[in-house]
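writing this on my phone so excuse typos. first protein, seq and then structure
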Amino acid sequence: MIEIVTQVGLPVDERLCIKKNRLQPADGGNGRRISVITGIHGDELEGQYVCWRVQQCIGEHPECLRGTVDIYPAMNPFGIDSVTRGIPAFDLDMNRIFPGSVDGDMNEYIAAQIIEDISGSDLALDIHASNIYLTEIPQIRINEISAQRLVPLAKKANVDFVWVHGASTVLESTLAYSLNSWGVDTLVVEMGVGMRITRSYGEQLTDGISDVDISGMVYIDAPQEWIDAYQEMDGWADWVTDYKLIADGQEMPNVSGGYGIGGDEERWRVYIRYDLPQSTEHLTLVPYGGGRKRSEAENIVIR
């Protein structure tokens, strides 16, 4: 179903409209949601093919769809129409204005509305391409701040290379950085070459998207002790790994390194990845006991 993400009025009775295609099973699915995003830079067309192929594959095998897939094929529609990197007439890189502001100018308003719409996804893939002079192998780029929870997901995305890089000030204004800060696990994909489509790379990533399993990602509001330990960088991860997850009465093994914490002063969340059955109804984190800080810890009921 085609839905409008945001729209604004333009001169001469025109409107700038950003849309998405939401694909869901007839029964609504399991509540999990993946967002496939591209077209922030209008001269990067590799993601257009991936969006088309993901939609085509789901259409051919709707019985395999268990959750929601949101496809955002054209975040910068004017840039795509003119095959230009930035937003035409503004000389502006759209991937340098996030998270935007509803009280800002037109482009900042659009950016804020995009963040709001994608918020709530369990996983987002932000697909980019190289410039016209360089072909890049399919790769995922991850900020080191988010590496612990994102690398396990990236390894299943069928790319040739996963690059964990250091934090940089300029990255704070990107869509991926903003979404990760909002608690949406976001993988940045770079592949191919500018102004054209490399079908083999598109097929490779499409296969990877179908294999990424988000059924085991568990989110909880972080207890204050965990937040304090994280802010002091005093072994906060010990708080996570000293708990076991009980799913419908059975202990679940967690994925090594598949955890993280993020947020701000208003809300902090912990992300833990488990080999979790799709049909799970009841989840509880139970302390192992005997730890230096967990002797009086209580169970954390997730659902």
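second protein below, same order as before
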Amino acid sequence: MITPPHPYEVEGVGEDMLPDNVHLRVIDDAVRVSDGEAFLMARRLVKEEGLCVGPSSALALVGALKWARSHQSDKARRILVLFPDHGRAYLSKAFNQQWLKEKGYWSEDS
């Protein structure tokens, strides 16, 4: 189910309008990803994989992983995830532990 766009902390996501090139009738499925999931995945990718990507890239990966888990019984598939941004521009946000704490996305277990 696709819900109307709404504000997100992840820049470029959940804008208050849909561009003309978005044709909802051709979308078969969608997965909801929270800001917190995206920010924590961005940090995880740096720590575990050495990939410094931005929150929207991490959001794309979380969405792909959620979708894959929900379709495990389907035939084997390959999933391509494009990372549209670099994490360098988000040092004061996604990679700032204090900012994440203030927003409620970080705990000592994160």
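The mean pLDDT is 86. thats all i got for now
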